[in-house]
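Illustration: PPM-type phosphatase domain-containing protein.
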Amino acid sequence: MAEGDRSHAYRTSCALFTGRSHAGSGMPCQDYVAARSQNGFACVALADGAGSKKHSEHGSRTVVKAVTRLLLDRFDELWTMAETNPSQPTNEILQHCLQALERQAIGLRCDMAELASTLLFVAHSKGRYLAGHLGDGCILHQQEDGQIMVLSHPENGEFANTTFFVTDSTASSRLRLYRGQCGEGAGFVLMSDGTAESLYRRLDKTPATAAVRQILSWSRTKEPAQMREVLSDNLELAFAKKTTDDCSIGVLSM
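Result:
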């Protein structure tokens, strides 16, 4: 189940929907998305489990929960680290996720590779943000002046339907970190590759600006329960019509 909450000026919301390819075969949704906000801090994280792996729905949940906890506990330290030595926070984030996956694999009595998933996150505190992205999916950013930009593009493997995962041996070189500053009027939208079929134009690598702007406007004006319902409805009635894959989305606005 997706999680979301609201604190102070932050608005966070999440939703996911099981794609036709999984619903038709009785498979669970392999996407997971969650948000946390408290004490002047907010983050949203999303992961898309590898379709070919038996337990990837557990993997996506595990890495999302692990990274949101880490960011809550150590945001200031990681943000500062990212300026002087980007490889250090990258490695610490991955190691934290891999340790959580190792515990999960022991519990499930499976190989850790069976928990493979992508990872996307954005955390914000005191006018600063730290974002990370490994695999496909996409992160969009609304700047304070209202402009919508792609913060992080999808990364696919040799073929369009392949990508990279937290459990890969090359993960440390694939996890991209973004560090910056933004305040009131800014926002972020994270999505799995299923949702990206509607909100990211692969042909020219640009965002679906009007739709993204509308989502962020809803985030700032609707109550949390209403926002979750709106996101869920759009995933089911619009976005899921353009793909057979699972769809998930996470929104953080200020």
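Reading the tokens back as a structure: The chain has a mean pLDDT of 93.
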